[in-house]
Backbone:
């Protein structure tokens, strides 16, 4: 007996596409995926038969970079609301960041977050633990079959997670047997940029567009180069988050993600927006690192195609609209985007590339057990996407914050249905 079968679908998986079907057993595992039409016997054996109408059938997206605000910041959003937005957007698994309250820097903090996710999450889930100046000895002995990896902040962050002492960084990269996901911005350069901006506008608010000068491209490269060099020297497994400049691309190798020790992520806003959008969007697009120039967006798109950038994560970071008010120094940084990232990316990249960067490679890099691919015996995490023209409106938004930088944007792809074998905690093969 099958749970369900999806037929008449344009299946995209592992670099190829075909018109075919996929069957799911009663345990939520893929029983069969094949070209052509299923037999009448197979159709009749399923509790539900779904005619995909020629829509795209993709592995569910794995977003390895989300801020679901749970615990302590739940006035902005929580695991229930933000995972609902994720599922609506075809994201079937997420990895949550540690900069909440209290910060997730102990096993006890991590366990409490996972317990919360177990109760309310609509998608599969995992969480990082944050590195601090005093928890490095404990990080090497954790159970990384359950824990996604370690988050390293080289720029200012919540709590005590700023870590830029060279000796401590060497100890971290030399001893942790898991992925180290790094936010690379030079803290001293950001502080200098802040003081410069205050001097330029001593009598009033610092205009929002100045954010891209305060959080400069130089601050990104200045922090990224030494940590990438150290990772290569120590053999650490480093994942460089939210790459926003073409200069950072010079630090990265092209090729297959599973063959690299240093991999990289970019985000939809760095591909779709530029500093020229500040007059239109204002603080809606204020984020860290800052959005840069159109030439950077073009270079990042090219790097996705040639393999220098391995994944697309959203850095989903909801704030209340009231918190986004203010100037370049006071308005909150971060934006919600998880609900619309997959259709946005399908509008600008080939489906095979989107699947590689948003499903296959996150599964490879984090060694996620039996997810990220449409393979027999794998968990049946999938999404049906139509080629429908539609416009994002405020009524579509499920994130608790209730706004999106992409409101009013016309799209050519729409998530029609998301299938999840779970929701369950992610397991990692390490």
Residues:
């Amino acid at each position: 007996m099958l749970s369900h079968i999806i037929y008449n679908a344009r299946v995209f998986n592992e670099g190829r596409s075909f018109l075919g079907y996929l069957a799911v057993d009663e345990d939520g595992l893929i029983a069969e995926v094949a070209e052509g039409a299923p037999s009448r016997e197979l159709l009749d054996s399923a509790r539900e038969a779904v005619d995909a109408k020629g829509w795209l059938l993709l592995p569910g997206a794995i977003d390895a970079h989300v801020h679901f605000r749970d615990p302590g910041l739940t006035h902005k959003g929580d695991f229930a609301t933000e995972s609902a937005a994720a599922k609506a957007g075809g994201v079937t698994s997420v990895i949550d960041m540690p900069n909440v309250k209290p910060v997730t820097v102990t096993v006890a903090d991590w366990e409490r977050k996972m317990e919360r996710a177990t109760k309310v999450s609509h998608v599969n889930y995992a969480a990082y633990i944050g590195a601090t100046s005093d928890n490095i000895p404990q990080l090497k002995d954790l159970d990384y079959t359950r824990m996604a990896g370690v988050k390293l902040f080289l720029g200012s962050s919540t709590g005590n997670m700023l870590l830029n002492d060279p000796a401590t960084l060497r100890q971290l990269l030399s001893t942790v047997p898991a992925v180290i996901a790094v936010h690379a911005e030079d803290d001293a350069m950001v502080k200098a940029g802040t003081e410069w901006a205050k001097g330029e506008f001593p009598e009033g608010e610092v205009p929002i567009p100045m954010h891209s000068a305060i959080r400069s491209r130089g601050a990104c490269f200045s922090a990224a180069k030494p940590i990438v060099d150290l990772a290569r020297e120590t053999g650490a497994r480093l994942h460089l988050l939210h790459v926003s400049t073409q200069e950072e691309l010079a630090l990265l190798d092209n090729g297959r993600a599973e063959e690299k020790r240093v991999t990289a992520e970019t985000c939809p806003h760095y591909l779709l927006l530029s500093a020229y959008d500040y007059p239109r969007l204002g603080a809606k697009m204020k984020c860290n690192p800052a959005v840069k120039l159109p030439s950077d967006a073009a270079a990042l798109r090219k790097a996705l195609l040639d393999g220098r950038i391995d994944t697309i994560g959203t850095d989903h970071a909801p704030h209340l609209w009231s918190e986004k008010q203010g100037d370049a120094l006071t308005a909150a940084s971060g934006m919600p985007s998880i609900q619309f990232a997959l259709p946005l990316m399908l509008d600008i990249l080939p489906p095979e590339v989107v699947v590689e960067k948003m499903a296959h490679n996150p599964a490879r890099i984090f060694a996620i057990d039996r997810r990220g691919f449409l393979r027999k015996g794998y968990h049946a995490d999938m999404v049906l996407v139509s080629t429908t023209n539609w416009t994002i409106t405020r009524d579509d938004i499920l994130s608790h914050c209730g706004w999106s930088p992409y409101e009013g944007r016309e799209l050519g792809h729409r998530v029609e249905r998301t299938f999840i074998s779970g929701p369950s905690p992610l397991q990692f093969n390490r």
Observations:
- The chain has a mean pLDDT of 97.
